[in-house]
Specification:
Blueprint (H helix, E strand, L loop, with lengths): L1 H18 L26 E3 L25 E10 L5 E2 L4 E10 L2 E6 L7 E3 L5 E8 L1 E8 L4 E4 L9 E3 L3 E10 L10
Parallel strand pairs: 2-11
Antiparallel strand pairs: 1-11, 2-3, 2-7, 4-5, 4-6, 4-8, 8-9, 8-10
Length: about 190
Amino acid sequence: MKWWFMGLVACSLIFVSGCNRATPAPASTQSSDTSPDAAAVEPVSPVPADSALTSPIANPPGLAVVPTPSSVDRSTVTGILILEGNAEQPVSEAILFLGSIVIANDAPALASLNKQAAPKAQTNAEGQFIFEDVPAGDYALLLDMIVSTYVLHSPTGEDMIIKVDGGQVVDLGELRYSDLPISNDSP
């Protein structure tokens, strides 16, 4: 239990240090902070639940159909996790959580995770993940490493705050990383 707690504290500190670089913009606007120290926070745009959502990859085998939210109070969050390197490969069988963003001094401070209550998803063979029935709120995408948790920033290194409103599908698209703290033995 002590190692899990230390891992969560370490992840929180990593997220806090990253969040101090920029204040996220609302999902419909870009950041108005133009100072040289500010990193651009890429907003994640929700897709209305009634629109037909297909995967950003053209029909690869194993890609699941993304369900519409079950109610106007809940949303669906989806994306595809890809590890780039010598050969591009989807990250399969990874456990992901959506950790709630904790606000301090009117800015994101850290990601909070309660594994029993947080939205949870597992990537399939194509790296696709789908979080269903996600309550409205601001979230960080967390990669579960059993003994620790790793906060996933955007693939370009900026903070990634996922804004979820009720009744929407939030498609994160392909999240391509050159390095992740995992052992991925997918073909």
